[in-house]
Design the sequence.
């Protein structure tokens, strides 16, 4: 017994190292799987607060750009409104159902931390649980898709960006209903990949890609990007389509979080169907 | 001793803030960010008694960086590892001065100091990017990123060391 204790005391540095190494490896591997990075993320009061106060300074210099973006978006929405005679009543939400029961709620938020140089990129926004933001809500900007809410705290949330090698988003072609999965290979910040599109789909360079609305996270029809390259995959049965994002992911200011009010109902129905 | 401890704590906070607010946003050529917070580990006073504290603080600075950059625990792994292997590198680079406990990193020659910095930073970045990218098909990319980022970080670290070292002559 004495010898064992002596052994531990002699090698205490090594054991401390092993302990700390296993803790940090634990954090690392947790973050490799979906929805597991619970402990170490930037949606907390400390890092969120620091990022927010620094962002306040940076924001001042971007005001002109934000104004321009808002004017452009207003213009687009106005033209939609005028051209669509069906919508006669004015709505305060961006994506409203024509039925009286609104399915999607939109919450505005501001990006306080953005990253795009890593393989697994996360953003931090300045809205959290107090603003009824929960995990797995979609995040878009005025130009297109941004990502999915990953972790939330009281006042902040982290967003798993589309520029993340573990992100998978349902997407489809605008002019046909062939759908696939949106992924990122980690190489270029401007292009993402659409995989699992069947070879029979009529795809050509320049086509627009939109969200597919099969996942209950994003409503159907949010813009993603345009096709820049079409390649067959290894098996030859599917396409791998390179997509140029409409959004400039390296410069994000104001974003919108989309809350699907029917998500619980959809999820419950789906799980019941599988159980039976 | 007390004075030293305060200096270490101040350095800890300054380096974490500088890293997350400035150096994480440099994006040279699109993907190169220097990890200057490793200076904390490189400059920690060389004393055999405080090794446990040193390893623990290195772990802490790694976790702090991870906390801000949503990277899981990759910085913690890399930092704690170079903190653990630092004595080996010190013995190899500085030989006698390290054996006789008279080593002050600020007082060594620029050549030796640069070798020491480059060795530890290469190790740190290799571990960091292996874990961050974590895929066999991307080994060339890992090596490329390690090489370029190491060069950038080393240059900045040597520069900061020269700029902020007080001459005691």
Sequence:
């Amino acid at each position: 017994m004495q010898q064992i204790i002596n052994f531990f005391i002699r090698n205490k540095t090594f054991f401390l190292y092993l302990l700390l190494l296993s803790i940090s490896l634990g954090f690392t591997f947790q973050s490799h799987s979906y929805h597991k990075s619970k402990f170490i993320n930037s949606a907390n009061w400390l890092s969120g607060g620091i990022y927010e106060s620094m962002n306040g300074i940076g924001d001042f210099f971007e005001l002109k750009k934000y104004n321009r973006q808002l004017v452009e978006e207003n213009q687009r929405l106005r033209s939609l409104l005028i051209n669509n005679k069906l919508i006669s009543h004015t709505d305060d939400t961006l994506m409203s159902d024509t039925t009286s029961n609104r399915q999607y709620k939109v919450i505005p938020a501001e990006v306080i931390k953005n990253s795009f140089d890593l393989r697994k990129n996360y953003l931090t926004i300045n809205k959290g649980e107090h603003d009824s933001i929960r995990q797995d809500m979609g995040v878009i900007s005025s130009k297109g898709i941004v990502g999915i809410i990953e972790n939330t705290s009281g006042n902040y949330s982290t967003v798993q960006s589309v520029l993340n090698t573990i992100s998978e988003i349902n997407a489809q072609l605008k002019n046909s209903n062939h759908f696939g999965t949106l992924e990122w290979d980690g190489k270029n910040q401007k292009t993402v990949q659409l995989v699992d599109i069947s070879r029979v789909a009529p795809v050509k360079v320049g086509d627009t890609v939109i969200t597919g609305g099969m996942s209950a996270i994003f409503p159907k029809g949010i813009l993603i990007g345009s096709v820049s390259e079409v390649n067959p995959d290894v098996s030859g049965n599917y396409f791998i389509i390179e997509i140029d994002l409409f959004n400039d992911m390296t410069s994000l200011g104001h974003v919108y979080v989309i809350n699907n009010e029917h998500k619980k109902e959809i999820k419950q129905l789906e799980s019941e169907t599988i159980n039976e | 001793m007390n004075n030293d401890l305060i200096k270490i704590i101040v350095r800890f906070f300054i380096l974490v803030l500088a890293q997350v607010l400035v150096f994480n946003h440099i994006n040279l050529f699109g993907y190169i960010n220097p990890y200057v917070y490793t200076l904390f580990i490189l400059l920690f006073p060389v004393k055999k008694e405080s090794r446990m504290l040193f390893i623990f603080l290195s772990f802490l600075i790694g976790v702090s960086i991870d906390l801000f950059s949503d990277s899981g625990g990759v910085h913690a792994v890399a930092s704690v590892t170079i903190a653990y292997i630092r004595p080996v590198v010190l013995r190899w680079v500085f030989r006698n001065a390290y054996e006789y406990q008279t080593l002050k990193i600020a007082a060594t020659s620029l050549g030796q100091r640069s070798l020491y910095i480059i060795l530890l930073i290469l190790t740190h970045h290799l571990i960091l990017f292996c874990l961050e990218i974590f895929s066999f098909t991307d080994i060339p990319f890992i090596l490329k990123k390690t090489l370029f980022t190491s060069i950038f970080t080393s240059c900045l670290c040597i520069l900061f060391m020269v700029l902020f070292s007080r001459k005691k002559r």
About this structure: Chain A has one domain: 41-276. The radius of gyration of chain A is 22 Å. Chain A touches chain B at residues 12-14, 16-17, 20-21, 23-32, 37, 40-42, 44, 46-47, 50-51, 54, 113, 115-120, 122, 124, 158, 186, 189 (CB under 8 Å).
